[in-house]
Amino acid sequence: MSKPTVRRNVLEMKNSTKEKEKSNQSFLSKHLKKVYPVGLHKSTSSLSLSSLSLSLSQNSNDSSLTDSSTPLDQKISLALRLIAPPERREPLVAKTAQQQPSQQNCDGELKRCNWIPKNSDKVYFAFHDECWGVPAYDDNQLFELLAMSGMLMDYNWTEVLKRKELLREAFSQFDPNIVAKMEEKEIAEIASNKAISLADSRVRCIVDNAKCILKIVREFGSFSSYIWDYVNHKPVINRYKYPRNVPLKTPKAEVISKDLIKRGFRFVGPVIVYSFMQAAGLTIDHLVDCYRHSECVNLAERPWRHM
To answer: Please, which residues have CB within 8 angstroms of residue 104's CB and are 6 or more apart in sequence?
Structure first.
């Protein structure tokens, strides 16, 4: 075979290979546009294809996609995996495993609501992190939070929380069935306890409120059913950004307050009632950049929240 003939055959083979590559690229681009709602450029560069591969790889473990895929889909998926550099997928995995940056301060610590000073007492930290905003459905716990919220007229949360264990012991774990039956001697003993530091009128208020709770239990089945009915048995989820946005009371708190007073409760003004609602998780008032906001929202949206 002569040299010109060999050269011509080589050129023809090269041209044929280029035409096949163009045809494959055109075919791939055409069907990707048809199958996946992702905008593709005419160029099938490694950058555009690898970006597409990243968006699709998030669903690669979905068995339903595998079962319903056609041979064409499988070829496209395989082609994308071969083209896309594997290292491009690593940053996405790393980001999902990390704590959201917006929930951490500059020191890497978890962000809390702005009204929690860094030098706060550990009992206040624990209350914010473990209780405040967590939906409570137990009658004893609701009674306890209502009683402690009423004490905010004389003390702040830290001062009340430091007495919590003493209060639980004095009021029989805030069991309304027991507290409602307290006699004068027991009331006097609690009022004279300097460690608890509750005036006689405050102690009697808690005892009287326990009696009112028992009446509600007879009517509604539980105090929990009664109080949660005001929010349709689902916490009110607020998304406040700044402390100044958080109200001292709301129209809902005023409605509850009026009905409680009508039923004989004492020290249950709308401000106290709203503090109770916040503590008992009837309303979630953690600031949106507080790490507890998303956690309490998840608790509020659980399907078995009312159990």
So the answer is: 110, 111, 291
DSSP code of residue 237: E
The reply, when asked if residue 296 is annotated as ligand binding, is: no
Answer yes or no: is 31 a known binding residue.
Answer: no
| Predicted TM-score (pTM) of this structure | 0.66
Beta pairing partners, 104: 110
> Is the separation of the CB atoms in 238 and 283 below 8 Å?
yes
The DSSP letter of residue 115 is T
Q: Which helix H or strand E contains 284, and what residues bound it?
A: strand 283-284
- Confirm whether residue 286 is marked as ligand binding: yes
* Cβ atoms within 10 Å of 133's Cβ, excluding its own: 28
Per the CB < 8 A criterion, the answer to whether 124 and 158 are in contact is yes
Instruction: Please tell me whether 128 is known to bind a ligand.
Output: yes
Cβ–Cβ < 8 Å for 137, 307: yes
Angle between the N-to-C axes of helices 200-220 and 139-150, in degrees from 0 to 180, rounded to the nearest 10: 150
State pLDDT tens for residues 173-211: 999 999 999 999 999 999 999 999 999 999 999 999 999
For residues 132 and 249, give the distance between their C-alpha atoms in angstroms, rounded to a whole number: 16
CB atoms within 10 A of CB 294: 13
Determine the Cα–Cα distance for residues 218 and 176; give it in Å rounded to an integer: 13
> Coil, strand or helix: which one is 58?
coil
* Amino acid making up residue 84: A
Query: Is the CB of residue 296 less than 8 Å from the CB of residue 282?
Result: no
- From the list 210, 133, 136, 138, the residue with the least C-alpha distance to 170 is 210
98 vs 91, 92, 93, 95, 137, CA distance in Å? 11, 10, 9, 5, 32
Classified as helix, coil or strand, 104 is: strand
How far is it, in rounded angstroms, from Cα 295 to Cα 298?
A: 5
| Predicted confidence (pLDDT) per residue in 117-143, tens digit | 888 899 999 999 999 999 999 999 999
